[in-house]
Amino acid sequence: MQAKQIQVTRRDFLKLAAASAVAGVVAACGGTTPTPQATSAPQPTTAAKATDTPQAQPTSAPAAELVYYYGTRANFKDISLVQDEMNKTLKDKIGATIQLNPLDWSTLSDKMQLKNASGEKYDMAFTSSWANPYYPNVKNNVFLDLTDRLPNGAPNYWKQIKPGAWDAAKVGGKLYAAINQQTWTPNFGAAFQKKLADKYKLDWSSVSKFEDLEPTWDAIVKGEAADMRAIENDDAGHGSIWTAYYNSTNPGYGLYNMVDKNGHVTHEWDSQGWVAAYTLVGKWNKAGYYGKEPWPAADFAAQHKAGKGASFLHNQKPGGEAEEKQITGFEWTSKILSKNFLDTGTLIATMIGVNKQTTAPDACVKYLELVNTDIPLYNLLCFGIEGKHWVWKDKGKNVIGFPAGVNADNSGYNPNADWEYGNQFNAYYTDATKVGAWEATKKLNDEATPSPLLGFAFDQTPVKTEVAQITAVIKEYILMTIGFIDFNAKLPEYKSRVTSAGGDKVLAEINKQLDTWRSSK
Which of 60, 277, 400, 451 could be disulfide-bonded to 390 (CB atoms 3.0-4.6 Å)? Predict the structure, then answer.
């Protein structure tokens, strides 16, 4: 394997997805955001099972080569072997082949923007709320309209996704990307190193809110070495309390209380939940939970893997403990502490768009049908070639592992990104303790309460200058999210600077658009 590039783990992906929804970063930095049409509440559907048979039909026409760009955490030497194996299936079943073009996550958005601006021809690309951003691409006429093509050309895949989820991804009543089914809810909570949870007798049954964890964090601060952080954190905001914890979402500016079906967006400081959260992290900082100073963001992954954090605050999805064990080598225990909401930002967090310039739109749609329903093909893309990159550990339970002599560091193909390529619920398990996680995750998705703003997207064009100014101010105060900037002392200054940057104007614009969107439903 070649030298690793930027590491985007599952945790990083979820943090980025949440950040785009919470701070409006993508729309502010990547372009403007059109407003989708009204959405309906998601209804449960049945996900594809391992026995489902794809209905895509082969063709005798010459094979089209589909050029596909997507993100990667590293360059893997065996990607051409995987591509060749995929093409055996694709050529037979849909009369096409694929050219896999992974781009480092750190450069994906910029490179795709250049390709689109120059008119470079390709067929498909990863798009989301946080990388190669969806809404700006739609506004710039990059993606093909899939509104009719997906239900007609990929019917089995189409049925896997909730109707309300499809609606949430629409812009002006049209759909421009295919949603990858995975965890769609924030599931915000806490995870602890199991050995420390056991040592300090953490009882999850007595924990329903973060304050209930304070005795455990106090004991860790007193009982562990000085370099052990009770709560992992860094200077980019790891360790903060997500808005989902206090039932709120940020639709591009300010906050909206998702419990209120007919409310309006407010300034952050007018939210009782926001004030309480910032007050709480300030208390934790003074108690020493975050240490003397935050880790540099570039060091966070290494510190986490080295076990220098007793706990972390993040998405605690089913199977997450096993994933963390794979990353760190030691066991974790966790609990979700937020209410289960379904929000637009997480629904569009991982998608595949078809380039409007493609000369093979039907083949692209057939590929989307196949990669979401042909389980061996999907897992070939996810994990590589059986016997070379993975072997069965328990075929009856769909559990795989590395072959003898192969590990995560020396494997010729180990992208660890099943959430990026299609329906994650079709992925093989990489740890026996994760068995059942896909069913549990789907249950969370199905039972989630739809946000009243599901499908609403703030068009920042009328206030793009003000949004850029506000975004710059917020970045200056990022350490306030973990208490290294005193909240009570700096709040008046923060309010004044955001207001001076145009906060009131942006708030009026977003609520104007919200009212228009509601009246169209």
Answer: 400
Q: Residue 484: how many CA atoms within 13 Å on its side-chain side?
A: 19
For 385-395, write each residue's pLDDT tens digit: 999 999 999 99
Query: How far is it, in rounded angstroms, from Cα 26 to Cα 267?
Result: 19
The whole-angstrom separation of Cα 96 and Cα 87 is 8
- Global pTM? 0.79
Maximum pairwise Cα distance, the chain: 71
Decide if 160 contacts 42 (C-beta within 8 A): no
User: What is the C-alpha to C-alpha distance for residues 485 and 293, in angstroms, rounded to an integer?
Assistant: 11
Distance of CA 466 to the CA centre of its chain: 27
247: alpha, beta or left? (left if phi > 0; alpha if psi -120 to 50) = left
State the SS3 of 413-459: CCCCCHHHHCCHHHCCECCHHHCCHHHHHHHHHHHCEECCCCCCCCC
Residue 515 CB partners (closer than 8 Å, separation 6+) = none
For the chain, which domains are there? 1-30+192-334+460-521 (3.40.190.10), 47-183+347-373 (3.40.190.10), 381-443 (no CATH)
Which pLDDT does position 6 carry in this prediction? 41
Half-sphere exposure of 228 (CA within 13 A, CB side): 16
| Distances in whole angstroms, Cα of residue 432 to Cα of each of 182, 235, 386, 394, 425 | 19, 35, 18, 8, 15
The Cα–Cα gap between 274 and 208 comes to 18
Give pLDDT, residue 61.
55
Tens digit of pLDDT for each residue in 425-479?
A: 999 999 999 999 999 999 999 999 999 999 898 988 999 999 999 999 999 999 9
Q: What is the pLDDT of residues 327-386, one digit of tens each?
A: 898 999 999 999 999 988 889 999 999 999 999 999 999 999 999 999 999 999 999 999
Q: Evaluate whether 324 touches 189 at the Cβ level (below 8 Å).
A: no
* Residue where the block lists tokens 């300090």: 200
**CA–CA dist 65, 67 (Å, integer):** 6
Strand-pair category, 256-257 with 248-249: antiparallel
* Residue whose C-alpha is closest to residue 209's, from 313, 343, 319: 313
Q: Please say whether the beta carbons of 183 and 342 come within 8 A.
A: no
C-alpha to C-alpha distance for 187 and 315, rounded to whole angstroms:
5
Q: Are 55 and 482 in contact (CB under 8 A)?
A: no
> What is d(CA 42, CA 439) in angstroms, rounded to the nearest whole number?
17
For 106, other C-beta atoms within 10 Å of its C-beta total 15
Q: Please state, as a whole number, how many other Cβ atoms lie within 10 Å of the Cβ of residue 209.
A: 10
Rounded Cα distance between 510 and 513, Å, is 5
